[in-house]
Write a structure and sequence with these properties.
Length: about 240
């Protein structure tokens, strides 16, 4: 069976001064969320089409200095990552153009623009994460690792950065490090389901820890039932473990 990772379409886009990354487990995809003065739209590799319908937050969140995390109330699952982005107009234009290039797979041009953004505006995680992902796509893994490290220095346990860094660790044969970074981020963001999926793949195919793999596949599959591949992986592991 083909075990595909969540890695290729987790590209950040942003507008304005306040960036918000919103994971809505109820809609089982990334969404665009407008709040106060800006938007951060995160496009991830969901199994279904991105749903841009949004629900209001019960209580408006204040603008804060540095990254912060807030959770939904009213028993809704999900979280918001807030960042105050001190980007110049030139940096915002370059960032938006770089995102377009990433979608078009023009990775070299995107890297050139993102390098300008981080040099001019070094205090925001999204450009570093996108830059690391672009370097991954062209096989420059050492440069990618540098970018993920910078993002995680600014925001430890950032779920997207940890997810991508875990894939890089796995690709370079550092399986224990990959497991550690997945588990570390899941301790803070247990409802970021791509981490469960990729940790399951790691434990299934590389660490041969089938019990742990099954547990994370099942968590993911319960939240994302439209992913038929993971349903097959669950059935396969349950059969191999004699749990059918």
């Amino acid at each position: 069976m083909c075990h595909e990772d969540y890695q290729k379409r987790g590209i950040f886009t942003m507008q304005g001064m306040l960036m918000r990354m919103l994971w809505r487990s109820k809609t089982r995809c990334w969404a665009v969320f407008t709040a106060l003065v800006a938007i951060l739209a995160v496009l991830a590799g969901c199994a279904t089409q991105v749903n841009t319908k949004t629900d209001p937050i019960a209580q408006p969140q204040p603008v804060v200095e540095g990254p912060s995390v807030s959770r939904f109330d009213n028993s809704r699952e999900g979280f918001i990552i807030n960042e105050v982005a001190g980007l110049s107009d030139a940096s915002r234009r370059d960032f938006d153009n770089a995102v377009t290039m990433l979608h078009e797979k023009a990775f070299g041009q995107a890297i050139e623009l993102l390098e300008k953004v981080v040099n001019r505006s070094p205090g925001v995680t999204a450009p570093y994460i996108n830059l690391g992902m672009a370097y991954q796509q062209i096989g420059k893994l050492e440069q990618a690792e540098v970018q993920f490290k910078v993002a995680l220095e600014m925001f430890p346990d950032h779920p997207v950065a940890c997810n991508q860094y875990g894939l890089l660790y796995r690709k370079t044969g550092r399986f224990d490090e990959a497991r550690k970074i997945y588990e570390q981020s899941l301790a803070s963001f247990p409802d970021y389901y791509p981490l469960h999926r990729n940790l399951g793949i790691l434990c299934d195919l590389y660490l041969k820890d089938l019990e742990t793999a099954l547990a994370h596949y099942e968590i993911y599959s319960q939240a994302m039932p439209e992913d038929d591949n993971v349903k097959l992986w669950v059935a396969d592991l349950r059969a191999r473990l004699g749990k059918n």
